[in-house]
Specification:
Shape: globular
Largest sheet: none
Structural class: mainly alpha
Distance between the termini: 51 Å
Helix content: 55-70%
Order of helices and strands: HHHHHHHHHHHHH
Number of strands: 0
Strand content: under 5%
Length: 207
Amino acid sequence: YAWQKVNPKKGQRIRRNLAGNPILPMEILLSLAETDMPTQVAVLKSERVPPDLFTEMTVRLARSDNWDVKLAIARNPRTSPVVLTELAKEAVPEGKSVDLEHYPLFMVSCALAGNTNTPPQAFDILINETRPPLPYLIAESPSTPTYILEALMKTKRPEAYFILRSMTRNAGAPRSIIETLAESDIHDVRDSAKVELRRRNTEEQKK
């Protein structure tokens, strides 16, 4: 292929752009999956990558020491729950909050909280990282298990207001939780929960 004949640095940029081409022949897309790591990450963003190849690539790339690669995998909704859970274990080592110097770990945690494919096992780990804004992202994520939302509702942390306010925007939260928040003593939380209830009522009426 022509991209194989240009200088390495320029070729890498060309390969990444090719990977994002929605009409790129599958033969070329698959060949890009065997090149450099940045290009492979770009390939993972394509929904045309066959499931088996996607899984093989994410399992292999998740072992990389490159945190930009791990972050891209953590953000991808096609990444398997098993890989996402392994990333959570790495991002919150020993189930403890990490130091500020480990910012890349924290970014991966935030990405996992926002991934619709993140399983309960991963949230069980992520909930141990208490540094904002991760608790807010967990409270707002439609993937967060109900038992974790219920625990967050009882939190006595200083940032409880922001956690509860975020939870009112959680489209996946059980109705009972939103109804409880709609009776909150906190004005903004109460009003925001009522807005969410009205949205849900409107959606139900359309069905």
